[in-house]
């Protein structure tokens, strides 16, 4: 497995916290169906009006596909200034720092 991390952030007027969890529950469930997704961590900074996520995908190809689709979806909601980066993972060091999910892929 050549897993990669996708990091996405963008300006957001909210909702945040518990309201976000309620408002986006259905969206969160649908993201689980995306090809190659292993997990997602939802991120938010209400003080500076930012939201986004950290995703683990099984391949760079799947991360690129998702980023393209997600960027288009956000733009359709009128959101711009979307930042997305795909990072390779240093598995050896990550496993030393408790990334146990990667140990089984070696």
From TrEMBL:
One Pfam match: ydhR
Gene3D superfamilies: 3.30.70.100
Gene source species: Acinetobacter indicus CIP 110367
Protein name per the record: Monooxygenase ydhR
Source domain of life: Bacteria
PANTHER family xrefs: MONOOXYGENASE YDHR-RELATED, PTHR39169
Alphabetized SUPFAM superfamilies for the sequence: Dimeric alpha+beta barrel (SSF54909)
């Amino acid at each position: 497995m050549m897993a990669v991390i996708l990091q996405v952030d963008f300006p957001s007027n909210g909702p945040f916290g518990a309201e976000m969890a309620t408002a986006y529950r259905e969206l969160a469930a649908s993201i689980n169906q995306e090809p190659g997704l292993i997990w997602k961590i939802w991120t938010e900074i209400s003080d500076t009006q930012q939201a986004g996520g950290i995703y683990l995908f099984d391949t760079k190809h799947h991360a690129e596909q998702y980023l393209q689709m997600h960027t288009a979806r956000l733009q359709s909601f009128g959101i711009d200034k979307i930042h997305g980066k795909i990072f390779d993972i240093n598995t050896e060091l990550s496993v030393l720092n408790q990334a146990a999910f990667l140990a089984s892929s070696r």
